[in-house]
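Long-time lurker, finally posting.

We've been working with C-type cytochrome, methanol metabolism-related (Labrys okinawensis) and I want a structural starting point before designing mutants. I don't trust myself to interpret raw outputs, so I'm hoping someone here can both generate the structure tokens and explain anything notable. Sequence follows.
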Amino acid sequence: MKSQAGNRPAPFRRNALFGLTALALGFFAATSAFADPAKPASSEDGKYVDAEGAPTYNITPDGNVDWYTFSGYRRYHSECTVCHGPDGAGSTYAPALTDSLKKMNYEQFTTVVVQGRKDVSTSSQKVMPTFGTNRNVMCYLDDIYVYLRARSDGALARVRPEKHDPKPQSAKDAETACMAN
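Top reply, 14 upvotes:
Generated this for you. Predicted structure of C-type cytochrome, methanol metabolism-related:
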């Protein structure tokens, strides 16, 4: 049986339509997953990780943030804002971390913070100092990362989060252990 619209048989058209529909649904699913890479895949005691195992944030529709994102906001503003500007937006001599995190994964971020980075040329001199021995950074490195990740993704505004989860006991214990060393 030939179709009226062309030379192809009707079963071919149905198979092609099914294939295109499946392809479109697959594309939609893939782009939806890509559009929200920071979506928490799991959590343990209020600490969230994505599908790759990297720390991430959890912000509820009413604006409540998880403890670690709130802690990251506090730690960023006590240690990083001097160079990188308010809320990771950058300054005249340090880059916007909200832009940097669009190109950096968790391991790369950690390496730069711990080891520092130098990019010196005749036209510019960019130096990120090492923070590997600074407990005010290292004890809260994941917190700073999730805060900046939320800012980078546009999930968190440039203001202090109004609502946050309470500090979990595991965070209190980790802080005590880290600061005591």
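Before you design anything, note these points.
The longest strand covers residues 117-120.
The chain has two domains: 1-35, 37-180.
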